[in-house]
TrEMBL record:
This is Electron transfer flavoprotein alpha/beta-subunit N-terminal domain-containing protein. One of its GO terms (molecular function) is electron transfer activity. Residues 258-293 are annotated as: Disordered. NCBIfam families: mft_etfB (TIGR04503). The electron transfer flavoprotein serves as a specific electron acceptor for other dehydrogenases. It transfers the electrons to the main respiratory chain via ETF-ubiquinone oxidoreductase (ETF dehydrogenase). Its cofactor is FAD. SMART domains: ETF.
Length: 293
C-alpha cells in the first residue's frame, strides 16, 4: 500500500451491559451499578483491525450504533490504539440489535459520508443477539465487497491488496482463504486477545470526547394485508382429451354412433326432456358434475 492511499479499516462493534461498573484505572467497582463495555467477540474484532492497520500502514476506525451508553465501549477501543471512534445514532427503531437490514443501511450512509469507502470492514461473527448476525453479509452487498465470515485468523500480505484468512469448517477441518480487498469479514470470538492499553492511553481515552453522527434513516416500507381467503389455484388451459375441432367435439358429446337403449327412442316430449337427454352424455363421461341441471 502507498502513503497516497492509507487503507481504511473499520471495526463495527456493539456495547454490552455489565452488572458492575469498574474503573479502568484502578479496577475498583463503582456503586452506580452496571456499565457498558466491549464484549469478548467485539474485542477480538478490534484487535484484528489494529493488527491489519499496522500491517498495511493504515488507520483503524471503530464505530458503534446506539445512545451515549456506548461511549464507554468506544473509549476502550480508543485506549487500545484505534485512530478514531464514532458513535452513530439513527431515528429508525431497532437499528443495531433487531433489524440487520436497517443497521447495514445506516452504517453504509455513515461510513461513506464521514470517512469514505472503507477498504476493510470487520465485525464479530455474532454481531447481535437476533437478526443482526447477518450484518456482515448485508454490508458486503451494499459495499460490493468480498465477504468472508467465521474467521479464526486474518493477516495481510505485504505490498498486496489481499488478505489471508483461516476459516473453521465442520468436523474440525480448516480452510485457507485469499480475500481480495475491499472486503467485509467477521471473526469468531477467541480468535484474538485485545492488547492492554497503557495508563496514559487510558487517561487520554477517558477524557476524550466521542464524536456523534445522527443519521436520519428513511422509514421502512409498510406492508398492508388487504384480505385473507383460502388458497385458490390459478386457472390454466388443459389439453382436450378428444377431437379439437368443433364438429368432432360435438359428435363425441352427443354420441350419435353409440348403440342406445331401445327405450330411449324418439318420442313426443316437452322442451325440458331433450335438454336433459343432451346433458346426460357429458355427465356420464365426467365432463359435467352429476348435479348439473
Amino acid at each position: 500500500m502507498t502513503q497516497e492511499h492509507a487503507p481504511l479499516i473499520v471495526v463495527a462493534v456493539r456495547h454490552d451491559d455489565h452488572p458492575q461498573a469498574i474503573t479502568p484505572l484502578n479496577g475498583i467497582a463503582r456503586p452506580e451499578g452496571h456499565t457498558s463495555a466491549l464484549g469478548e467477540a467485539d474485542r477480538c474484532a478490534v484487535e484484528h483491525g489494529l493488527r491489519i492497520a499496522e500491517e498495511l500502514d493504515g488507520r483503524c476506525v471503530v464505530v458503534a450504533m446506539g445512545q451515549s451508553v456506548a461511549d464507554a465501549a468506544l473509549r476502550v477501543a480508543l485506549a487500545a490504539g484505534a485512530a478514531e471512534v464514532l458513535r452513530i445514532e439513527s431515528s429508525r427503531a431497532g437499528v443495531g440489535d433487531e433489524d440487520g437490514v436497517a443497521a447495514a443501511e445506516v452504517l453504509d450512509a455513515a461510513l461513506v459520508s464521514t470517512f469514505g469507502p472503507p477498504d476493510l470492514v470487520l465485525c464479530a461473527d455474532r454481531f447481535a443477539d437476533s437478526g443482526a448476525e447477518t450484518l456482515s453479509s448485508l454490508l458486503a452487498v451494499r459495499f460490493g465487497a468480498t465477504h468472508a465470515r467465521g474467521l479464526l485468523e486474518l493477516t495481510a500480505d505485504d505490498g498486496e491488496t489481499t488478505l489471508t484468512a483461516l476459516r473453521r469448517l465442520d468436523e474440525g477441518r480448516r480452510e485457507r482463504l485469499t480475500v481480495p480487498l475491499p472486503a467485509v469479514c467477521s471473526v469468531e470470538p477467541g480468535s484474538a486477545i485485545l492488547r492492554e492499553a497503557t495508563l496514559p492511553a487510558t487517561v487520554r481515552a477517558g477524557r476524550a470526547g466521542v464524536p456523534v453522527l445522527v443519521v436520519a434513516a428513511e422509514p421502512a416500507p409498510v406492508t398492508r394485508l388487504a384480505s385473507v381467503h383460502a388458497y385458490r389455484p390459478r386457472s390454466r388451459v388443459e389439453p382436450a382429451t378428444g377431437p379439437t375441432d368443433p364438429h368432432g367435439r360435438l359428435m363425441e358429446l352427443v354420441d350419435p354412433l353409440v348403440l342406445r337403449d331401445s327405450s330411449r327412442g324418439p318420442r313426443a316430449a316437452g322442451p325440458a326432456e331433450p335438454t336433459e337427454e343432451l346433458l346426460s352424455s357429458p355427465r356420464g363421461r365426467g365432463y359435467l358434475p352429476a348435479d348439473t341441471a
